[in-house]
Write a structure and sequence with these properties.
It is a single chain. With 341 residues, this protein is α/β, with parallel strands linked by helices. Helices cover 38% and strands 14% of the residues. The chain has a domain at 7-202 and 234-260 and 292-306: 3-Layer(aba) Sandwich (Rossmann fold), CATH 3.40.50.720. It has helices at 7-14, 19-27, 42-55, 71-79, 118-135, 171-190, 209-218, 235-244, 266-277, 297-303, 310-322, and strands at residues 32-35, 62-66, 83-86, 103-106, 140-146, 193-199, 202-203, 223-224, 229-230, 233-234, 254-258, 264-265, 283-284. The strands form 4 sheets. Strands 3-2-1-4-5-6-11 form a 7-stranded parallel beta sheet, sandwiched between helices. Strand 5, helix 6 and strand 6 (193-199) form a beta-alpha-beta unit. The longest helix is centred in the middle third of the chain and has 20 residues, at 171-190. 48% of the residues are buried.
């Protein structure tokens, strides 16, 4: 693939569906609702869904519901053909105005800054799903979750599989497990079909673990080795997997790990960017024996491997930073071990 030069090209690449996704979208039998579409991944997922439905030749709507703190982001979605609804989803009166669609992608959640307002984190991650699920009990829902619900494991383990019992570290991760339990409860009680989409570290060049490491190497800042390994995945692949998962929701919920096939060494990634930028990587700390790692073999067996390989992603990130590409300024805090994000 060519290198990505600007945000317009980046958004185009992120929103280009492949044939498999278009076939999935052709088989859907109603409008698509995206809850919490105003975050890092939501806008590109909405545009991807819109283009896939258009390519599939269907007239079904894509509806993005979010508090939409940015009027610009909302206007861009409308321009792309996505219908938008601005609402506070925690308000049980406002949720009544959200249409009851058969297919739902649930992306609402809070992570960054969660140590400052733990009460708000619990409200958004645990109370909000209950409000939404009472309203959308007849939907099938792909619910974004995280590998943070798993315990830290040694790299030699290959990462946590879906059968690994949850053992979240820290309050944020506990709220993520709480969110999953709320989905499980309403799925069992009401028969709502759900898939818990446990994603580990998406990258879109403006944010992500690889971006964090690359910017530190490029800027002469130290790279922490305390958590010495990680998984990551191109955001376009993550969004495509999420939409294709609509067809495999079930009650009780299905769990699916979603990330790249590799376990990547922080030291090795820093060394790559050091060579690429011609700058010394400043490394601090010592790799611990465990890290937050997921095994996504089930995802790749069902849907195929990611379209963007790690080698390509590394090159894209390096070129983006060398060219002065913009950042969302939302670090992943992948190096945190105590769960205090």
């Amino acid at each position: 693939m060519e290198l990505i030069e600007n945000e317009q090209q980046l958004e185009a690449v992120l929103s280009t569906p492949d044939r498999a996704l278009c076939e999935t979208m052709r088989r859907l039998d109603g409008d698509l609702l995206i809850i919490g579409a105003g975050g890092k991944m939501g806008p590109s997922l909405a545009r991807l869904a819109r283009r896939a439905l258009d390519d599939a030749g269907t007239g079904r709507r894509v509806i993005a519901a979010s508090i939409f703190e940015s009027d610009h982001a909302r206007a861009e979605l409308e321009h792309a053909g996505v219908d938008t609804i601005s609402c506070d989803l925690l308000d049980s009166e406002q949720i009544k105005h959200v249409p009851k669609c058969r297919d739902v992608i649930y992306m609402a959640g809070r992570k960054f800054g969660s140590t400052g307002r733990p009460d708000l984190t619990w409200a958004i991650n645990v109370l909000l799903p209950a409000v939404v699920l009472q309203h959308l009990r007849g939907s099938r829902i792909v619910a974004f979750s995280t590998g943070n619900v798993y315990p830290f494991l040694p790299p030699a383990s290959g990462g946590a599989r879906e059968s690994e019992p949850p053992d979240p570290v820290g309050e944020y991760a506990q709220t993520c497990l709480g969110r999953e339990r709320v989905f499980e409860y309403y799925s069992r009680e009401n028969g709502t079909e759900v898939l818990l989409f446990r994603l580990n570290y998406a990258v879109d060049l403006r944010y992500g673990v690889l971006v964090d490491i690359a910017r530190k190497v490029h800027g002469g800042q130290p790279v922490q080795l305390d958590v010495g390994h990680f998984n990551t995945l191109w955001q376009g692949d993550a969004n495509s997997y999420a939409l294709r998962c609509l067809e495999i929701c079930q009650s009780p919920p299905r769990v699916l790990n979603v990330t790249g096939p590799e376990i990547i060494s922080v030291r090795a990634a820093a060394a790559f960017f050091s060579r690429r930028f011609g700058r010394e990587a400043i490394l601090e700390g010592t790799e611990s024996k465990t890290a937050l790692l997921s095994n996504a073999a089930q995802c790749h067996e069902r849907f195929g491997p990611p379209s963007v390989k790690q080698e390509q992603l590394l090159e894209w990130v390096a070129h983006w930073i060398e060219a002065g590409g913009p950042s969302l300024n939302k670090p992943t805090h992948f190096e945190v071990k105590d769960g205090k994000y």
